[in-house]
Amino acid sequence: MVYMAMARKWRPMSFADLVGQEHIASTFKNAIEGGRLHHAFLFTGTRGVGKTTSARILARSLNCSGGDPLSPCGTCTSCKDIATGNPMDVIEIDAASHTSVDDMRDIIEQVKYTPMIGKYKVFVIDEVHMLSKSAFNALLKTLEEPPDHVIFIFATTEVGKVPQTILSRVQRFDFKRLNNKSISDRLAYICEQEEITASLTALDLIAQKADGSMRDALTYFDQIYAFSGQNIDEDAVRNILGIPPEDLYFDLIEALWEHQLDKVYGVIAQATASGLDLSVFLQGFAQFLRNVLFAKVSGLDHQALEVSEDLFQRYREAVPQATHGDLLRYGKIANDTLQQMRYSTNPRLSLETALARMAWLDRVSDLRKILTTVQSATSSAENKKKYNEALVPAEVTTPEPKPDLASEPTLRPEANLTPEQFSAPELSSTPEPDLAPVPDSAPTLDPNSDPYMEAPPEADDFSIDFDDVSVPSPQIPRFEIVSQWKRVVQDFYNSEPLVGAYLEETTLQRGDYQASPFELKIIFKHSQNFQYEQITKSPNYKNTLTEFLQNILGGDILLRYELLDPTPEELAELNAPKPSFSQPKPNLYWEKDLKEEAILQQLSQAFDLQHITSKLKNNHSQN
Length: 623
Description:
Layout: H1 6-9, H2 22-34, E1 40-44, H3 51-63, H4 77-84, E2 90-94, H5 101-111, E3 121-126, H6 133-144, E4 150-156, H7 164-167, E5 171-174, H8 180-194, E6 197-198, H9 200-210, H10 214-228, E7 231-232, H11 234-241, H12 246-257, H13 261-273, H14 278-296, H15 302-305, H16 309-317, H17 324-341, H18 347-359, H19 367-391, H20 485-495, H21 497-502, E8 507-510, E9 518-524, H22 529-536, H23 539-553, E10 557-563, H24 568-575, H25 588-596, H26 598-607
Parallel strand pairs: 1-4, 1-5, 2-3, 3-4, 6-7, 9-10
Antiparallel strand pairs: 8-9
Helix pairs in contact: 5-6, 8-9, 9-10, 9-11, 10-11, 12-13, 13-18, 14-16, 14-17, 17-18, 25-26
């Protein structure tokens, strides 16, 4: 008896046998049962997912003489012919070798004849994207309105090359790429039927090597079966398919991380001695890096990688100090080297150079974590300093009278002043707090002591956990907000152009920069009355501006608005006499024309015309 390959022997014979294409099977079952079957179909998907097989199953279901079209009997003449590959009413054409217009004319000629055995004549055109443009055009009319006994089934792996005129005339079915579990389960079923003993790890390796193709998986399985016989294990699969062991990759990444170049070269020598293709070895390492990166991402499990739980845990525990950035840099070098090795005359040199670069890479630090640590340390130090300053008794001074804001609308601090040296006039609406004398019992600190020393025991009632204190990080110090007001307005304009335009030419006054809330007043010139009303009458504008200032100042603020009285210059301009626009002197010539020309008088009265200007010459012509 002639041996039949596994891919042919275990090819599905009904929709129930299709693996991983349940949506395709359900659609055809419903269409056949309801009598709503279309006359043209397009099957698209990667190789080995069941496109041609589904076309044959559909042809068997339509032409089977048995009672149930959804379950072909397999014993009638039509089913036997399709199973043996010699059907009378199913014409399979390889478009890669039949691309011309003449080939399509032969199909059009055969369409005229009725089927010989079954009910339908089915034309299956594989790799239909290989047809020429002229061949597609020749098929358009027949494809759009074929005879009732004709069904077209197109199959392609590159649907983007099929013209839109063809796509609009067919029903498109996208075949899914099979996952590893579906392939390994199907292989386990075949092993059970063939009485073959195979380990689950071996079947998983075959499924991974197949990369979503059931046909490739059956081909690999057939090859391994010929080598191992009735017992298939992991070592046999790796030897036949040239798959490097995972331990080799774990040793390699540890050597790279520890900068141990001697061990890196030792791994390369071991792979070469095993007869591994170096391109396949590097491609496997790139896949290994991808798996390690995915395993370190929180929220993913072994099902996302389609690997066992034990292997997933090993991926997660590999090089625990490595960041995502380190793994991504390794992967980038590996992928770039794979492209170079395709055209390299010395692939081993390219591989060794790439791995040496990985071994000499510096560590990648997470910048976000560094910034968070620095900000946390800075905030903690500032809080401790403020706390220690609060424990030192301050000298009570009598506050000086503050100038009126109305007389000095703009404030300009002197350059190079520290926050302690700068003294700005307080807002008139903010009363000066009365400072009570500090009691003699207040604790004092030695000036020569450590400013970050712990508080004395007597201050237990005033204890603060600085790690729990959250202090906003201002972008602009409060005492510089007045001098930086133009830049603040420009930044606000970049985010809110309309409101930012209203703030141009405004000035700012501030209150005590240590007060909470920090009081600010935006002052508008009298000529900016429109801008003042637009902002003050819109709660959205005021809220947006307040939130913006709070973000850059790092705390709560109290924002006020003021419209100045007109300056003497503006007042003089307002009181200046307005130019009078008197009525132009009547055009005597025109009036004379109206009196002398009756037709002009009639037109003026009938249409209520108004004369603007005219010139009258001696001959009474108008320019």
